[in-house]
TrEMBL record, chain A:
Main location: membrane
Originating organism: Paenibacillus pinisoli
Name of protein: Carbohydrate ABC transporter permease
Pfam families found in the cross-reference section: BPD_transp_1 (PF00528)
Subcellular location as annotated: Cell membrane
Domain ABC transmembrane type-1: 72-279
Length: 294, 310
């Protein structure tokens, strides 16, 4: 290896290392800040090396944890239900569209495609979901608007079905007397695990990270998901305790507000950080599929 | 004869009935979630009165638009949306390409995988959590910058959430920080698919690394650069609502540099109750956005048919 090449390799390591640090350090700061003693916050601020540690913020969080557990429950429920429904609806629309022999297929595919080019935007969508169908302050509001299905995923899946589900298999099943639903369920879905898993992962992330639906359609704190609670606490730090008053009536500790903010964000980030190593490889692959098509 | 062919066609169509039924849930959803709101754009031409109901409210022609374009807001939100997007497209591409090229230099699979995963991390978390991370840096009383960095440089603390002039930089940094990992993957995939023989031949001829990047890597990924740039231009009227709403914490003092069309529409609808204005701004965005998508796609087609959206 020549000197020049070694130089390149080392500079690549240094620059990428710095960028990687820039990506990680904010998370570290969040954590160290959350365990800083609130007495030293005034002088030291949020810091990587606090001179005095305290878990008061987590104590406070634990005492007011009802809301957090509820929010986690909503997040998990909407993620599971939303992702499942989304995969079903997407594949059930994509499979017929992948059948070139179906009359009207091109027109229907265009109807799906057109939604990628043009959309009504926030105001009319808000009117549809509040005036025409009133789903404000229901669980449906956390699942249905915007997120449930999108044309891009339908077309992605359709392309996969066209390329990866061999036609002779479908035809022979049909000759054997299998109905379309049987074919869809027993053959198409079984052969399409990679694309189902990819789109499922992205849908699950979209549901887990969604705060927009809650912000627009939900005012009832009982239906807030995790992101909505975090969002609310940003502007209203006493949100948890004010909503917990209906509960146990325990003595509420003094609110260590600056460290508490950081502690609750740690609680919000933790599940993603823990799950990431497991889906990481898959995620990168999925990004490439979507990117090539998009 | 005629009846038999008709019967045949009928039988043929009947065979597809299960397929049509299968599509119903998805099509119904697209109708409700996408097509009804398109028709609902007509409320931009109405004086919305909840007492009368949305659909029975009076038509007012272009009045909402007249009001909108008389305000300075219309100019500010258009300017901000366009400028931010322009910067995001140019800087975003440059940095993503640079990272992809550097990642390609790392030969060890483990090391490359490690960098890639770490750089992707910010892309995974919600913008709400990003706003917490930014707050840890910028908080006036406790932020890392005000308490550690600025004192080290001997500077006075800054009220970040009240000073609009810093936000173009802050939002750009946050955008790049969150998105670079994602966009570099596209380029990395493209670079990895370049035939190694080109580089080997160049090495034999004594071409320097920099020369190879300029003469092989760049030309090979130019189609993707063109395509992504044009797609970005097609979406230049839209912005990431969360970035502009959550990260500045909806601070009124910052609107001058943080208000974009999406945040304007949201505030008009949800906070100010000014539906007419909000609907007009939304209509303006949908229409111009649509035209830009068509135009940019037309240009992509002229360059390279395979990369065009349609």
């Amino acid at each position: 290896m020549t000197k020049e090449y070694r130089g390149w390799r080392w500079s690549a390591h240094i620059i990428l290392g710095l960028f990687a640090l820039a990506c990680i350090l904010p998370f570290v700061l969040l954590f160290t800040s959350s365990v800083t003693d609130s007495k030293v916050i005034v002088t030291e601020g949020y810091t990587f090396f606090p001179s005095s540690l305290s878990f008061a913020a987590y104590d406070y969080l634990w005492q007011n944890s009802k809301m957090i557990f509820n929010a986690y429950g909503i997040t998990i429920l909407t993620t599971v239900v939303g992702t499942t429904a989304s995969l079903l609806m997407t594949s059930m629309l994509a499979y017929p569209l992948s059948r070139k022999d179906m009359p009207g297929g091109m027109v229907l595919a265009f109807i799906v495609f057109f939604t990628l080019l043009f959309n009504g935007g926030l105001v009319p969508t808000y009117m549809v979901y509040t005036q025409l169908f009133d789903i404000k302050n229901t669980l449906l509001a956390q699942i249905v608007p915007w997120l449930l299905m999108n044309g891009f995923n339908v077309l992605l899946m359709r392309a996969f079905f066209m390329n990866s589900v061999p036609k002779p298999v479908l035809e022979s099943a049909s000759i054997d007397g299998a109905g379309e639903f049987t074919i869809y369920y027993k053959i198409v879905l079984q052969l399409s695990l990679p694309i189902m898993a990819t789109i499922g992962l992205f849908q699950a992330l979209a549901y887990w990270n969604d705060w927009n639906n809650g912000l627009v359609f939900v005012t009832d704190a009982g239906l807030f998901n995790l992101q909505n609670v975090l969002n609310r606490i940003m502007s209203d730090i006493e949100f948890l305790s004010s909503n917990a008053s209906m509960g146990s009536g325990s003595i509420i500790a003094q609110l260590p507000s600056e460290t508490f903010r950081m502690a609750i964000a740690v609680i919000g980030i933790l599940p993603i950080l823990i799950a990431y190593p497991f889906f990481q490889k898959f995620f990168v692959k999925g990004l490439t599929i979507g990117a090539v098509k998009g | 004869m005629n009846t038999t062919t008709r019967r045949k066609r009928g039988a043929r169509l009947r065979r597809f009935i299960p397929l049509y039924i299968m599509m119903l849930p998805g099509l119904a959803y697209l109708f409700i979630n996408n097509y009804l709101p398109m028709f609902g754009l007509s409320i931009a031409f109405k004086d919305i009165n909840y007492a009368k109901g949305i659909w029975a409210s009076d038509w007012v022609g272009l009045k909402n638009f007249e009001y909108l374009f008389k305000t300075t807001d219309a100019y500010i939100i258009t300017r901000n949306t366009l400028l931010y997007n322009a910067v995001f497209i140019v800087l975003g591409l440059l940095i993503a390409i640079a990272i992809a090229i550097l990642l390609n230099e790392i030969r060890g699979k483990m090391a490359r995988g490690f960098y890639q995963s770490v750089i992707l991390l910010p892309y995974l978390i919600s913008i709400i959590l990003v706003s917490y991370l930014v707050y840890a840096m910028l908080s006036v009383d406790a932020g890392f910058i005000n308490k550690t960095i600025l004192p080290m440089l001997g500077l006075d603390p800054i009220s970040w959430y009240l000073e609009p002039k810093y936000w173009p930089y802050i939002l750009t940094i946050v955008h790049i920080w969150k998105g670079a990992g994602y966009s570099c993957i596209i380029f990395l995939a493209a670079i990895l698919s370049i035939d190694r023989e080109y580089y080997e031949a160049a090495e034999l001829d004594g071409a320097s690394k920099w020369m190879q990047i300029r003469k092989i890597t760049f030309p090979m990924i130019t189609p993707i650069i063109t395509m992504l740039t044009l797609l970005g231009i097609g979406r230049i009227f839209y912005s990431d609502f969360g970035l502009f709403y959550q990260v500045p914490m909806n601070s009124g003092a910052l609107y001058e540099t943080t208000n974009v069309i999406d945040t304007y529409v949201f505030r008009g609808l949800m906070q100010l109750g000014d539906i007419g204005m909000s609907a007009a701004a939304g209509f303006y965005q949908s229409l111009v956005g649509f035209i830009l998508v068509l135009v940019s796609n037309y240009i992509v087609r002229r360059f390279d048919k395979d990369n065009a959206l349609f």
